[in-house]
Design brief:
The chain is an alpha+beta fold. It has three helices and four strands. The mean pLDDT is 73.
Length: 120
Amino acid sequence: MHAHQILSLSTARRWAAASLLAGLSMGAIAQSAPVAPAAPAAATAAAAATAPQAASKVQQPSLNIRQIYDRLDAAGYRELQEIEWSDGRYEVKGMNAQGERVKLEVDGNTGEVLRSRTKR
């Protein structure tokens, strides 16, 4: 190869690398550009006003699993297992004071047993 050909290949590689970097940086700039204009303050306030309503649809219990366990244990239930939060209440499997296997539905806010089904 001749000296001017090596210089040309080297220059071509540099130009290719510079073009690649320029293209990548332009893509990064395009991705960081805002897609939509900022919402007006009134729209932001309206969204904030409806946020508590959306959050209230997902009901969270006041009592945690340990508190439910302690309340049921104090009420005479034993071998409590599978304490799970579902549909606004806890579902618990265990044994009642008579030694029968039961499935309980317990209020997550008060700890009150809403329903007790004996399993045979």
